[in-house]
């Protein structure tokens, strides 16, 4: 699929998801190019239909700026007891709704917002669908203090680590950490890998989002917009 066609599908998924948002909701808003379409449509609904959210939290400074430009007041997640709904993109989506996220590097905040939501909805174009998780490097956010040891340990475990780069520098996350992308593909047992990463000292968060998503909006090249729950 070429980029223009994919962007069109991303827009359709974002617009459909925005139509499911109701005034009075406490909403979590993720990060990425699909989410950018969601925010644009939320802004349109605010101006033209009077959509008013009770609270809105987001997962990156990019989304925060776009939301503020649309007239929304963004609140820190810590100040909200629980979000009603979080809408986010995903890099890969398996048939059981498990996903890989973090292509944009915002995985830590994305997971925090997701687990503090009553419902989680992902918006994707059909190119993100996979039978088994894989087809995309798995991001792992690591503390700089022990990142070299983490990298060597991942190498020894056969997880094929690569530093995420921004030009010729290491990519630095919002929290001042580095990202290691694991090129293990497909991921044989996602829950085992998640458990291993969860208990590895120095790992802040990883991009395996398992048992978290409740609903997905999928835009297909056929023109169908599927709402799968
Ligand atoms: C950022 C993410 C994004 O949700 C994911 O990368 C999808 O992005 P896009 O909508 O641009 O394809 O996880 O960390």
UniProtKB/TrEMBL annotation:
Pfam families: Rib_5-P_isom_A (PF06026). InterPro entries: NagB/RpiA_transferase-like, Ribose5P_isomerase_typA_subgr, Ribose5P_isomerase_type_A. Coiled coil: none annotated. Substrate binds at residues 31-34, 88-91, 101-104, 128. GO terms for molecular function: isomerase activity. Belongs to the ribose 5-phosphate isomerase family. The active site is at residue 110. HAMAP family: Rib_5P_isom_A (MF_00170). This is Ribose-5-phosphate isomerase A. It comes from Lactobacillus xylocopicola. SUPFAM superfamilies: D-ribose-5-phosphate isomerase (RpiA), lid domain (SSF75445), NagB/RpiA/CoA transferase-like (SSF100950). Keywords: Isomerase.
